[in-house]
Design brief:
Blueprint: H1 14-17, H2 21-29, H3 48-53, H4 63-67, H5 70-79, H6 82-86, H7 115-126, E1 160-162, E2 165-167, H8 173-181, E3 187-190, H9 198-201, H10 204-211, E4 215-220, E5 226-230, H11 231-240, E6 249-251, E7 290-295, E8 300-304, E9 311-318, E10 321-326, H12 332-336, H13 349-363, E11 369-374, E12 379-382, E13 387-392, E14 396-403, H14 409-419, H15 421-434, H16 436-449
Parallel strand pairs: 1-11, 2-3
Antiparallel strand pairs: 3-12, 4-5, 6-7, 7-14, 8-13, 9-12, 9-14, 10-11, 10-13
Helix pairs in contact: 7-11, 14-15, 15-16
């Protein structure tokens, strides 16, 4: 026990007296001492993990200890022998010496003044479970070696198999349909889009030059509202970001926005995918089917299946994607692996490929996993209902489209009539008007399944097994006119002699202009600066 020595009387300190409340507080409790949680034991900071867990408790010296003269405390501390300190005596209760904390990271410095605010706004809207400044908390973008998953080699074995590959010159559209599309098998087609202008025009620098002040969709909030950002800010963010799972530019408004629609002139649908039977519904009513994508490295999508049983193709012009696919017969529980995620972990795409997928392979050794890397100039075909996920190993630019054709019409129709009733009603009316054979095929499936369309049921009656998550964005409009429909992708579905789009015009003069603007393919040039007309030329 330490003896108490009376301190000699001291003259009051004017500065101390001026501290008011602080003086009274210190008299009762004593000054604060360092917490044992402080890294290095000298800065008095508490670890963030302790703060969040609620286990942190401030410690202060007792009044008796505070009244002890400093010199006496120093002597008592030095008098304790090393052995007593090692044995855990009271004199050895000080916190262990730790290595000094790493220097704080420098905040990101963007080129544009407004970039940080725009990024903060979109992050805050997209994820409400974490704060915008916590998007990099796992360190995939700034810790040395943490992003090793982006360069990890794919090891193929009896469980992990490669996605089949073919070269463009070695396969025809007919062979593709027979060997892959009709059998619902995935494939990667090499050299499929090397002649596209997009291979030159879709670098980040070139896109920024063209679309500098055009806003693109980079996220959605909890209510489904699209969060947009001007491209100059997004390009600034993409070059500097260190997020674990960055904002993913996924533009669905390609056909409706006149400025963004210019992108469709930079590529063409590969001839392996000539069908688009959903085009029998006008662009305002049909489900989204075309996306322009820019994924910063570490971004991606978790494992999912595409809506309504549609098949998809995805073409990469810049960067590299890492794909994983699972057969449709596999259960959602097995392929997503959410039961294998531990407390404190996240399940974003980068984490899925880093540690969730390896755990899935170990937990389910009978599960067949398809993996591959997709590089610039390559197109991947993902059949309907195949589970798939992707992570971008580099800053990646791509375009993707979903379609309905002869290989998947039956499944798409059955899903659409149940999940999108208004779309199905309009689609069926247009089939009857422009594609009678397709109409009879859909009606026959309804008769076999004893399915009644919306207009065939009593008012107010709903489907008993309709998904609660289905959404209806279209209205109950009458059937479309021929000029409302885009003929691309419908050649194999419509009856001979039926003209769609601009070819259906009757009042534009003869012959009709092939590339005339219609409501189905509306596009506008960016308005230039208006000039004053020279009076001499008027």
């Amino acid at each position: 026990h330490l003896s108490l020595v009376a301190s000699p009387p001291q003259r009051p300190d004017p500065a101390r007296q001026s501290m008011g409340h602080d003086r009274d507080r210190d008299r009762r409790w004593g000054p604060p001492i360092e917490s044992s949680d402080a890294a290095g034991g000298g800065d008095g900071q508490v670890s963030e993990r302790r703060k969040k867990s609620g286990k942190h408790r401030s410690r202060r010296a007792s009044p008796a200890k505070e009244r002890e003269p400093a010199a006496k405390r120093d002597v008592s501390a030095r008098s304790a022998s090393p052995a007593s300190r090692r044995s855990g005596s009271p004199a050895a209760s000080s916190s262990p010496v730790r290595s000094p904390p790493p220097p704080p990271r420098e905040p990101l410095r963007f080129t544009h003044r407004r970039t940080a605010g725009e990024v903060w706004r979109c992050k805050k809207g997209k994820r409400t479970d974490i704060k915008p400044d916590e998007w990099d908390k796992f360190g995939y973008g700034w810790k040395d070696g943490k992003d090793e998953v982006l360069s990890r080699e794919i090891v193929y074995d009896s469980q992990t198999v490669p996605i089949p590959r073919v070269k463009r010159k070695d396969i025809t559209p007919e062979m593709f349909f027979e060997q892959f599309a009709s059998k619902h098998l995935p494939v990667i087609i090499e050299d499929a889009c090397e002649d596209w202008p997009a291979m030159r025009r879709w670098t980040i620098d070139a896109l920024e030059e063209r679309f500098r002040n055009i806003s693109f969709k980079v996220a959605k909030d909890d209510k489904g509202k699209k969060l947009r950002m001007k491209f100059k800010y997004y390009a600034d963010y993409l070059r500097k970001q260190q997020d674990d799972s960055p904002l993913y530019l996924f533009e669905t408004n390609v056909d409706d926005n006149g400025y963004i629609r210019a992108l469709t002139g930079d590529y063409e649908v590969p001839d392996f995918f000539p069908h688009d039977w959903f085009a029998l519904v006008n662009n305002d009513a049909r489900p989204p089917f075309r996306w322009f994508c820019i994924g910063p490295k570490r971004s991606g999508t978790t494992v999912h299946i595409d809506p309504l049983g549609t098949a998809a193709w995805n073409a990469v012009t810049h960067g590299t994607k890492h794909w994983v696919l699972f057969d449709p017969k596999e259960s959602k529980r097995r392929v997503k692996g959410r039961d294998l995620v531990k407390d404190g972990e996240d399940d974003e795409a980068i984490m899925y490929f880093d540690f969730i997928l390896p755990r899935i392979k170990k937990e389910y050794p009978d599960l067949k996993v398809y993996e591959a890397l997709q590089r610039p100039g390559e197109v991947i075909f993902v059949p309907g209902d195949w589970w798939h996920g992707v992570v971008n190993r580099e800053d990646t630019v791509a375009v993707t489209q979903n379609y309905c054709g002869p290989d998947n019409f039956d499944e798409v129709w059955k899903r659409t009539r149940k999940e999108r009733e208004k779309v199905a009603s309009l689609w069926l009316r247009n089939m009857k008007k422009f594609a009678p054979k397709l109409y009879e095929r859909a009606r026959e499936m309804n008769r076999q399944d004893k399915f009644r369309m919306r207009h065939e049921r009593p008012k107010g009656e709903r489907l008993p097994d309709r998904s609660s998550s289905s959404s209806e964005s279209s209205s109950d409009s009458t059937s479309d006119q021929a000029e409302d429909l885009d003929p691309l992708g419908l050649e194999s579905a419509v009856s001979p002699g039926i003209k769609l789009g601009a070819a259906a015009f009757h009042k534009q003069g003869a012959p009709p202009i092939p590339d005339i603007v219609t409501s189905a393919r509306a596009t506008f040039e960016k308005p230039g600066k208006r000039r004053r007309l020279d009076p001499d030329l008027a």
